[in-house]
């Protein structure tokens, strides 16, 4: 299966989009800003009616869209939630988005959901389960998905693979693409003590279908350095540098500015997108 | 050291740490790197509670305003710990928050909060529900003439909700959202409320207790005769249906006689 859906209404362009959140809905509907694409959290648009459905239909008429799930709990030892998956399928059929993505994580066990992106051990058992789950989702949706590396504050000592090895092998076995969250790579490199460039070197660039950028905060008072993937501030300089390295390695990819907490004016997100666009196209002009 | 946990064992232990804050089986398998593994796990625990409390705050702003932020956050945290979320979509978290509030000893003197919380949950349900094509009024009137009430279903739009409250729930909600003048007396006359979605807004209208019972019965899919009740005066039907007609709350495709194998075409 191709990385993007070939019959979709609007493919996501190789440009810098913005993650659209509720406080900016009215602004976007009124102003129709020149944003190359928007990414939406899938679950917020599961409802068959209401204001979000109206927004969705208006957006898809004017913008390429990417659907980004946060609640499927792909890596849970339990079976996937059939109802959740059916709702995702219905949404994808309705929107025909350029990209569909989820996370390499788990969020539910024994019927209880924690609605968070919880870390997996990078073991063969987890890899086999994730591979089966991603294949199940792709078969259900009739298309490939991208899976995103998550930020984490825990590394399990019985992991037998590095995070990037896990992602590369998951992509190889399942055929899925990768959503490379550059901020998460940097956050994890600090939290778990690895060179972020090793991560980039270990990722199959041809499988990267999208990149994410966001801001982090530093957690104080724990006795060691820990970064929190807070999505509440501008992209850090170190992450910009890593993004440049990623574009050099992988070439230009659709890129997204994410901001989920303490949302600023939409203009701030547009300014972050402008900076990312400069990096994206500057690197695109550099011969390989 | 023992054998590493299976994925299921690890996730169960992790889940226990999220709820109870204790993970003796898990911590040996968490790399410290200068930070206590329990402190690392607490980041997830704190974030998890914050996510769920914020979700409840978004759905129950009037309850929060009425009991205060501190009390609300405490109750929301307790609810999260005890009930948890049963789905990956947070929009449905809080389904039984009203009943939970009603069972808390410290709220024994605030029983009226339950109805306000239930009103807020019904608003959330109405916001997320589907919308069907609206019934044709002439077809509906013809059906009322031609099909016996014992065989007629009049299904409402999926976004219609009915609250049969024991307190002035709508007045309390309205005051909580915009506190002008004196607060309503919770011991005041009970209010039943009809809710529906118009465009992107939720509309709430007080209705009589009779109308509320009737409309709730229609919502539950009862036949018209059942909704009216055995001792109901058929002459009251126009009054009971008045808000349904006025606000186009009947769904077209599903107006049908009960004993046909397929919905009866009434247009």
TrEMBL record, chain A:
<dbReference type="Pfam" id="PF05114">
    <property type="entry name" value="MbnB_TglH_ChrH"/>
</dbReference>
<dbReference type="InterPro" id="IPR007801">
    <property type="entry name" value="MbnB/TglH/ChrH"/>
</dbReference>
<dbReference type="InterPro" id="IPR036237">
    <property type="entry name" value="Xyl_isomerase-like_sf"/>
</dbReference>
<comment type="similarity">
    <text>Belongs to the UPF0276 family.</text>
</comment>
<protein>
    <recommendedName>
        <fullName>UPF0276 protein HF690_13175</fullName>
    </recommendedName>
</protein>
UniProtKB/TrEMBL annotation, chain B:
<dbReference type="InterPro" id="IPR044922">
    <property type="entry name" value="DUF2063_N_sf"/>
</dbReference>
<dbReference type="Pfam" id="PF09836">
    <property type="entry name" value="DUF2063"/>
</dbReference>
<feature type="domain" description="Putative DNA-binding">
    <location>
        <begin position="9"/>
        <end position="101"/>
    </location>
</feature>
<dbReference type="InterPro" id="IPR018640">
    <property type="entry name" value="DUF2063"/>
</dbReference>
<protein>
    <submittedName>
        <fullName>DUF2063 domain-containing protein</fullName>
    </submittedName>
</protein>
């Amino acid at each position: 299966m191709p990385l993007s859906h070939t019959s979709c209404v609007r493919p996501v362009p190789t440009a810098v989009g913005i993650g659209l959140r509720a406080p900016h809905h009215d602004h976007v509907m009124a102003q129709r800003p020149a944003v190359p694409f928007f990414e939406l959290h899938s679950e917020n648009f599961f409802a068959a009616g209401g204001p979000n459905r109206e927004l969705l239909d208006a957006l898809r008429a004017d913008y390429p869209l990417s659907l980004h799930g946060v609640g499927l709990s792909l890596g849970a030892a339990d079976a996937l939630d059939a109802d959740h998956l059916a709702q995702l399928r219905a949404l994808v059929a309705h929107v025909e988005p350029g990209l569909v993505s989820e996370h390499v994580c788990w969020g539910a066990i024994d019927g209880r959901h924690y609605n968070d992106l919880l870390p997996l051990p990078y073991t063969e058992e987890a890899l086999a389960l994730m591979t089966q789950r991603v294949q199940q989702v792709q078969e259900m949706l009739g298309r490939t998905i991208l899976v995103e590396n998550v930020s984490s504050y825990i590394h399990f000592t019985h992991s037998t693979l590095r995070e990037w090895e896990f992602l590369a092998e998951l992509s190889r076995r399942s055929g899925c693409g990768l959503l490379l969250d550059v901020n998460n790579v940097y956050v994890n490199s600090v939290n778990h003590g690895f060179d972020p460039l090793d991560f980039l070197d270990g990722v199959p660039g041809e499988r990267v279908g999208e990149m994410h950028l966001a801001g982090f905060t530093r957690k104080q008072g724990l006795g060691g350095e820990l970064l929190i993937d807070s999505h509440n501030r501008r992209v850090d300089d170190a992450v910009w540098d890593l993004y440049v390295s990623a574009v050099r390695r992988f070439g230009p990819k659709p890129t997204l500015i994410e901001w989920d907490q303490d949302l600023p004016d939409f203009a701030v997100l547009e300014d972050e997108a402008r900076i990312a666009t400069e990096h994206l196209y500057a690197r695109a002009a550099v011969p390989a | 050291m023992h054998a590493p946990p299976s994925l299921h064992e690890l996730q169960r232990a992790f889940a226990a740490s999220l709820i109870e804050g204790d993970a003796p089986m898990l911590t040996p398998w968490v790399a410290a790197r200068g930070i206590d593994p329990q402190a690392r796990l607490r980041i997830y625990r704190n974030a998890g509670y914050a996510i769920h409390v914020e979700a409840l705050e978004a759905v129950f702003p009037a309850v929060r305003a009425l009991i205060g932020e501190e009390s609300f956050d405490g109750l929301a945290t307790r609810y999260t710990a005890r009930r948890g979320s049963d789905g990956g979509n947070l929009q449905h978290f809080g389904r039984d928050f009203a009943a939970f509030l009603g069972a808390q000893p410290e709220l024994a003197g605030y029983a009226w909060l339950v109805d306000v919380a239930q009103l807020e949950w019904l608003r959330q349900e109405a916001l997320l529900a589907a919308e069907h094509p609206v019934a044709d009024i002439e077809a509906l009137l013809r059906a009322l003439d031609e099909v016996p009430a014992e065989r007629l279903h009049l299904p409402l739009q999926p976004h219609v909700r009915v609250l049969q409250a024991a307190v002035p729930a709508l007045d309390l909600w309205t005051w909580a959202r915009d506190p002008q003048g004196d607060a309503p007396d919770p011991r005041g006359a009970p209010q039943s409320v009809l809710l529906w979605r118009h465009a992107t807004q939720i509309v709430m209208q007080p209705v009589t207790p009779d109308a509320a019972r009737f409309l709730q019965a229609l919502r539950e899919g009862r036949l018209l005769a059942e909704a009216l009740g055995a001792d109901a005066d058929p002459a009251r039907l126009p009054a009971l249906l008045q808000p349904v007609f006025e606000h186009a709350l009947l769904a077209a495709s599903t107006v049908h006689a009960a004993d046909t194998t397929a919905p009866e075409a009434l247009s």
